[in-house]
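RECORD TYPE: inverse folding
INPUT: structure tokens
STRUCTURE:
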């Protein structure tokens, strides 16, 4: 069974800068992909698949070198989330996906390669070990970790765990 745990993160200045770059890259890719989906639908009447959107990443990274600041799997999750948002919209479970703003809450998801080392959460890419306030323990394997920054400047990690039950 899946369970989620939320912990407070306390990144240092360099880690805050790396996280801000990752938030920005993922937000830009979301907005770019959403715009591309809307333009494609207007001209052809068809949408874009998740695989097509993910396939754009290598050429976009060559064109926009700053996209390499974000961990590659975080960008791939953006394509997954966008395709899921459109699927939820067409099945009448949600509204049409909207463009993301840098104001308000920001988040990125790490689908793999995240683990705890003592009181630190080891994030892949350029972020590294971030101090985590672990107020409770959990058992199981980590599936995904979503790092979020609230408008008040506080960072949190939502950890989805499979406890094997």
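DESIGNED SEQUENCE:
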């Amino acid at each position: 069974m899946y369970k989620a745990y939320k912990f407070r993160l306390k990144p240092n200045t360099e880690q805050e800068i790396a996280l801000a770059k990752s938030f920005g890259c993922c937000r830009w890719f979301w907005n770019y992909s959403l715009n591309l989906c809307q333009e494609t639908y207007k001209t052809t009447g068809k949408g874009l698949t998740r695989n097509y959107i993910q396939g754009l990443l290598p050429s976009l990274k060559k064109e926009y070198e700053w996209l390499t600041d974000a961990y590659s799997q975080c960008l791939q999750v953006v394509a997954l989330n966008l395709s899921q948002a459109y699927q939820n919209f067409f099945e009448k479970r949600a509204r049409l996906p909207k463009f993301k703003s840098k104001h308000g809450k920001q988040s990125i998801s790490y689908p793999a390669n995240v683990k705890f080392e003592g009181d630190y959460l080891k994030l892949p890419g350029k972020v590294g070990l971030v101090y985590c306030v672990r107020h409770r323990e959990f058992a199981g394997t980590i599936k995904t970790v979503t790092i979020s920054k609230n408008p008040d400047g506080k960072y949190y990690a939502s950890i989805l765990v499979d406890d094997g039950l």
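NOTES: The CA atoms of residues 64 and 157 lie 28 Å apart.
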